[in-house]
């Protein structure tokens, strides 16, 4: 198991540690595209890992989109909002953190990437999420637990964050991955963004193909083979985008699990929804 991922058995062992500072803070990022925040919260209240704090996507993990679309559908959160949200969820400067969601780790990966960006290194993702915890027969609880407020101090810059200009630089010198489903990359079946297609020169590698049917990440060797088969060159730097900066974080996690070359991926958080906010930027369709 990668040191970025954790399985239910290992997590259960850590949560039973005698030293409270060794027990990870648990963040439940129950999020899925098209599901309301109220429904996400209701799902959490109906069952979650014991002691886990619920974190909504906004405002802690994303700010609200601008009227002109610049910044994308899930822009970077404001520093003050992110710090308050993580503190309210119990995150400290000392204790490690484990993040999870329903199964596929999409929401969890966004929290993992943001915490790393803000300087928190000891963060792992529960592989397979809440579904894997249930499948292991481990205890759960309902309702909202009492969370001891954290003292985390966020400092930006722990990961490479790109804007549209940064993506253009990567297109010229490195490689860029589009992690949306393949049909949206080709410009087909676009029901989310007002413009269909992709950034010219990007490589299509759908993020959700990095996990199996149970939502667990494929083994590192399988991920490496998948990326190289899609045209990724390990000796080049990689930038990633998606529709609004969530699947891109998932792809970043998968690339780091694969531990190949200089992936050390940069993320274009604004992604396609930001790219198309400027009609001057080029787009293309097809494979």
Walkthrough of the structure:
This protein has 287 residues and is of the alpha/beta class. It contains ten helices and ten strands. Helix 8 packs across helix 9 (247-258). The chain is globular, with a radius of gyration of 18 Å.
Task: Write a brief structural summary.
With 287 residues, this protein is an alpha/beta fold.
Shape: globular
| H and E order | EHEHEHEHEHEHEHEHEHEH
Reported for the largest beta sheet, the result is: 5 strands, parallel
Distance between the termini: 34 Å
Q: In terms of structural class, how would the helical and strand content be classed?
A: alpha/beta
Strand line-up of the largest beta sheet: 1-5-4-2-3
- Beta strand %: 5-15%
The number of helical segments is: 10
Number of strands: 10
What is the topology?
Blueprint: E1 5-6, H1 8-15, E2 25-28, H2 37-46, E3 53-54, H3 79-88, E4 97-100, H4 106-117, E5 123-126, H5 129-135, E6 161-162, H6 164-173, E7 175-178, H7 182-186, E8 203-204, H8 220-229, E9 238-241, H9 247-258, E10 266-268, H10 271-275
Parallel strand pairs: 1-5, 2-3, 2-4, 4-5, 6-10, 7-8, 7-9, 9-10
Label this structure with key terms.
globular; 287 residues; five-stranded parallel β-sheet
């Amino acid at each position: 198991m990668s040191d970025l991922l954790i399985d239910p058995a290992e997590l259960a062992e850590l949560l039973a540690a005698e030293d409270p500072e060794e027990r990870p803070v648990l963040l439940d990022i129950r999020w899925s595209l098209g599901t309301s925040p109220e429904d996400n919260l209701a799902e959490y209240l109906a069952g979650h890992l014991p002691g886990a704090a619920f974190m909504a996507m906004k405002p802690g993990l994303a700010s609200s989109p601008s009227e002109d679309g610049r910044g994308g559908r899930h822009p970077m959160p404001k520093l003050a909002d992110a710090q308050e949200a993580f503190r309210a969820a119990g995150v400290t400067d000392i204790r490690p953190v484990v993040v999870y969601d329903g199964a596929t780790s999409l929401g969890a990966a966004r929290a993992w990437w943001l915490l790393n960006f803000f300087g928190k290194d000891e963060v792992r993702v529960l592989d397979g999420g809440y579904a894997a915890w249930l499948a292991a027969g481990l205890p759960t609880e309902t309702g909202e637990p009492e969370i001891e407020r954290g003292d985390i101090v966020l400092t930006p810059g722990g990961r490479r964050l790109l804007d549209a200009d940064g993506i253009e630089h990567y297109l010229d010198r490195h490689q860029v991955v589009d992690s949306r489903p393949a049909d949206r990359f080709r410009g087909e079946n676009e029901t989310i963004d007002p413009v269909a297609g992709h950034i010219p020169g990007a490589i299509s590698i759908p993020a959700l193909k990095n996990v199996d049917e149970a939502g667990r990440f494929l083994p590192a060797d399988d991920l490496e083979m998948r990326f190289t088969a899609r045209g990724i060159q390990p000796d080049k730097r990689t930038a990633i985008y998606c529709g609004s900066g969530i699947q891109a974080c998932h792809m970043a996690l998968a690339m780091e699990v694969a531990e190949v070359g200089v992936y050390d991926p940069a993320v274009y958080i604004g992604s396609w929804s930001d790219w198309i906010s400027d009609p001057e930027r080029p787009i293309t369709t097809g494979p």
